[in-house]
Every structure is written in C-alpha cells, then in structure tokens.
Amino acid sequence: MKTLTAILATLLIVPLLRGQTDTVKPIEPPFGLSWGETSTNIETWAKTNKFPMTQGTTKTGRTAIEIEGPFPSAEFDRLRFYFQENQLNEVELQFNEIGAGENKAQEFTTITKALAIKDQIDKQLGKGQLIKNEKGTKDGTNWQFIQQIWTDEEHAIWLAIFNASQPKQGNLSMASLHYRWETKICPKKVDKQKGK
C-alpha cells in the first residue's frame, strides 16, 4: 500500500479556505458540541461507552483526541477532536475501507456514505463549493480525489473523498469530513482571504 499511501498524503495537504459559498446558517460542530468547549464531555463519553481513545499533539501544537469505533448506528469508523488551549476547533469524521483485490462493492459503500453526507449538508447549508475533482495514474495505481467545502464567516466543513485501485494491492477507499473553526485554526490565512 506504499504507493496508495504516498498519493493520499500528497492530496490531503488541504488548501485552507480558498473560497466561500452563500451560506447564511452558522456552521456548528456535530453531536451537539459547541466551538470552544473543553475536552471533558468528549473524554467522558468515550470512557462511558468504552471506546478506545488516544491523545496526542499535532505539528501545529493542537491537542488531538482520537476515538475508534465501531459506533452503534453510525456510518463513520473513527473520530478525531482537535483543541487549541483546551478549546475545540475541529472535529473530523473518518470513513475508511481497504479492500482486497477488485472489491467494487466495498468501494461503492464508502462513496455512498460520503455522498449521502454531502446531500445532507447541501440541504442544511446550501450547495458547497467544489475545490478539487482530480484523477490520475501513478506506478500502475489509478486514483481519484474529490474535495468540497461549505463555509460561513468563521467556520468551514471540508469533505474529502479518495479512491485508488491497483490489481496487486487491492482498492483503497477513504472519506473524511472536517468541521473547522477556521478563524481559530489559521486566522492569518482567513484574514488574507477576506482581503485584510
């Protein structure tokens, strides 16, 4: 899977807030969370439900809490919560499937999950902006990467879908959904986008 991993790592260097939609409704984090809240509720929930939980620090100094599924009645496989100065500023939902051989049914499942979420967000916030829709081949691996964004004045939702297939290595199908408090994560870049 080295080739697939290399392609994915390159594509997921996500450009920050390239554009804005006509979204009026403020973007809130999922699960009834609030921007800026501490990690207490999340840690308590994970411990109560006995979900595996790990904690670390990102390269930018944010605290990251990762919680592994499976989660009952949920489509996602993994959750990540990011905090700066113990304030929530990003929630990431991951949908990961690695197939063996030509497992088209498994690839279809991940794409279906991601597109269903996209449709739900479109209904709530209006149609998002397509940032990337790229296809290519590298070292015998065929890949496609799709990225869409919804924004308001301070927040954004990023949806990324990645599919790759190689006869000898099988299929890799992944999707991730990021709820971000952009002005807290990268204030200088957001100000630049606004012309400040």
Give the H and E element order: HHEEEEHEEEEHH
Largest sheet: 8 strands, antiparallel
- How many distinct folded domains? 1
Major sheet strand order: 1-2-3-4-8-7-6-5
List the helices and strands and how they pair.
Blueprint: H1 2-11, H2 40-48, E1 53-57, E2 63-68, E3 78-84, E4 87-98, H3 104-125, E5 129-138, E6 141-151, E7 155-166, E8 170-181, H4 182-185, H5 187-193
Summarize the structure.
The chain is an alpha+beta fold and 196 residues long. 27% of the residues lie in helices and 38% in strands.
3D structure, described in words:
The protein is α+β, with helices and mostly antiparallel strands. It has one domain. It is 27% helix and 38% strand. The protein contains five helices and eight strands. Strands 1-2-3-4-8-7-6-5 form an eight-stranded antiparallel sheet, with helices on both faces. Strand 7 and strand 8 form a beta hairpin. It starts with a helix and ends with a helix.
Key words describing this protein structure:
single chain; 196 residues; alpha+beta; eight-stranded antiparallel beta sheet; 5 helices; globular; disordered N terminus; disordered C terminus
